[in-house]
Amino acid sequence: MTDSSPTSTEPLYGGYTRFELELEFVQCLANPWYLNHLATQKLLQNSSFVAYLSYLQYFSKPEYTKYLTYPGPTLKALQLLQQEQFRKDILSPETVGRMVEGGVVATLGDSAARGVGGAA
């Protein structure tokens, strides 16, 4: 008996499928400091890399979004990265700081809404 599932014939890269590697990478995009790092390495100026970011938008489809740990920040970053101006702005530590602060505020807001933390 042979295993005819699609994953059995999919090539592995360092022991991982392409989807697993893309999932890991796209989730890193939720970190504003990582976006800043990509910008400082000039990757966000590389047309091939920008095309790859566009390709990764398939994660916004429900059948793929379900695999994201933090879909909101991940998909927002992926959306912002489609904009040339944002790819320039993310070089600024102030932009990174605003994104970090916004994420913390959103997280605190979510916690308050769920009744987590806060005063007794």
Compile the SSE list and pairings.
Layout (H helix, E strand, L loop, with lengths): L5 H4 L8 H11 L3 H9 L6 H9 L6 H4 L5 H10 L3 H6 L3 H22 L6
Sum up the structure in keywords.
single chain; mainly alpha; 8 helices; 62% helix; disordered C terminus
Task: Describe, in short, the structure shown.
The radius of gyration is 18 Å and the shape is globular. The protein is mostly helical. Residues 1-6 and 111-120 have low confidence and may be disordered.
Order of helices and strands: HHHHHHHH
SS field, number of helical segments: 8
Which range best describes the helical content: under 10%, 10-25%, 25-40%, 40-55%, 55-70% or over 70%? Answer: 55-70%
Dominant shape: globular
Largest sheet: none
Characterization of the model:
- This protein is mainly α.
- The protein is built from 8 helices and no strands.
- The longest helix is centred in the last third of the chain and has 22 residues, at about 95-115.
- It is globular.
